[in-house]
Amino acid sequence: MTATKHDPKDFENPPINWIPAIVLLSTPLLALILVPWYLWTHDLSFSVWLAFAFFMTWTGMSITAGYHRLFAHKSYEAHPIVKYFLLIGATLAVQSSAFDWCSGHRVHHRHVDDEYDDPYSSKRGFWFSHIDWMLHKYPSGQYDYKNIPDLKKDKILQIQHDYYGFWVVLSNLIFVGLAGLITGDMLGTFLMAGLLRLVLTHHFTFFINSLCHMFGTRPYTDDNTARDNPILALLTWGEGYHNYHHYFQYDYRNGVKWWQYDPTKWFIAGLSKIGLAKELKTVDDLTIKHAEVTMQFKRAQKLANGNAMSLDERMLAFKERISAEYDEFTKTVEEWHALKAKSIELKRTEFASRLHEADEKLKEQFAQVEQKILAHSERIEKALLQFKGKTT
């Protein structure tokens, strides 16, 4: 995908993308009619519900751990067994080939929020970002695959792309059909583990493109509309921590805090423990905390600027406190950058036998910087709480 801007006129009256339109509009309608009818007229066995849960997990995690974090972002490396197990699950999910999905996603990150170059830009509204970008042949959704040279080297991915429709039909017939034989309820299994699972997986994924750019918090960056939404994280196997992801997109984690619900992260970490995944990419705690504190200062400055007409002593004191704290924070960040440059220089110039000694030498200094940034965070949060408490 080139950096050339699309002409807004090309977005007027785009042709219908017939196959996706038929699938995406007919399947929810069929699910709304057939699933309630079947549940009303039949006793659904536990084994069918189990099949539904299995396919929801397999296909959902295949999109998050497979298409997204493995193929699109290369945030870890997976054993071929895992890689192709996830590829089969992603094919079952019917969300386009790996080439289409990953190429479009990389374009999204490159042009996030651009009204015409972001394939599912939230700037064009909920309907467009949720589903309409697939229902029509918009210019932003036509990919040349120049941004996925790494994926194009994989012959299996190329085969999946070239015969995608065939593999979608075959995989769903084989795997869901096999589950139907096991449960002894073929129709119920196809309706629940096939149709209902397909619709739910589709729209839970689509919520990341739409709702996660509209509702939630922005603790790491406000340079784009992506937001952290813990409720959507529950529906999307941890993908709801979208503000973090857009700022640190190559981290294999989306829910970076220990208490955040991110089963995809736990799945990948678990694979690494048994040798089925490696090279897990992470962002260091200090860099993450720096982003958080920067946003804390932005919120404090916005609060101060929003009350610019109020020149009472409390506001003046708050502004002075924020200004002084920010000056100190800037010095701390400069110290941190100097340490990183020093670390790189030491690793470049020191003999291999002394690299460990150099790392140990700087570790204590980095820890001190980290403590300073944490202290800035605590003081700015305390200032915000005190000011809000006095003004409410």
For the secondary structure, the number of strands is 2
Q: Please state the CA-atom Rg, rounded to the nearest Å.
A: 25 Å
Helix-strand string: HHEHHHHHHHHHHEHHH
**Mean pLDDT, all residues:** 88
Uncertain runs: none
Task: Give me the secondary-structure category.
Answer: mainly alpha
Largest sheet: 2 strands, antiparallel
DSSP strand content: under 5%
Overall number of domains: 2
Number of DSSP helices? Answer: 15
Helix amount? 55-70%
Q: How do the strands line up in the largest sheet? A: 1-2
Give the distance, in angstroms, between the N- and C-terminal Cα atoms.
51 Å
Q: Which geometry do the CA atoms define?
A: globular
Question: Describe it for me?
Answer:
This protein is mainly α and 392 residues long. It is built from 15 helices and two strands. It folds into two domains: 271 residues, no CATH class; 107 residues. It has a two-stranded antiparallel sheet with strand order 1-2. α2 packs across α4. The mean pLDDT is 88.
Structure keywords:
1% strand; mainly alpha; 67% helix; two-stranded antiparallel ribbon; 392 residues; 15 helices; 2 domains
